[in-house]
Amino acid sequence: MRTIIRSSSAAVVLAFAAIGCSHASGSDPAQAADSITRSVYANDYDATVANFDDATKKTVTRTELGALSDRMHALGDYKSLTARDANPDTGKYEYDAAFTNGSLLVLLRVDPDGKIGAYRVEPEAAKAASAASPNG
Question: How much is the mean pLDDT over the chain?
Fold first, then answer.
């Protein structure tokens, strides 16, 4: 699987597939999402990929990470992560990442074995448009 980092005025997506998490089994998904979000915001490549498996580490570029970090910084200081939705049965979690001038939606999927299977960051507008869509 590949990591996709896109930065555009319409959407910002950071998706990590098959991400290995070195946290202890049963770790808090919110803690993992916050840690990754803080690392991306700080444009800290080493911290961002620290808990990824070797294959995933190879797919994240410093340039793409920097572009997403810049998009986050455009929203101001990173403040906090708040749970929006959680479905432990499917391993899917949604969080609002609050910044001083806006927010982003953070989507996290935790595999049954406790590893992070996906991490995505989307603008709030993308979530609102999806919810308004009859197919959303």
Answer: 74
Helical ranges in the chain per DSSP H: 29-41, 45-49, 54-57, 62-73, 124-132
> Higher model confidence: residue 65 or residue 53?
65
Higher per-residue confidence, 136 vs 27: 27
Domain for residue 76, yes or no? yes
What is the residue range of 106's domain? Answer: 13-132
Instruction: Count structural domains, the chain.
Output: 1
Query: For residues 95 and 66, what is the distance between their CA atoms, to the nearest angstrom?
Result: 22
CATH number at residue 75: 3.10.450
| 127/42 Cα distance (integer angstroms) | 24
**pLDDT of 43 higher than 60:** yes
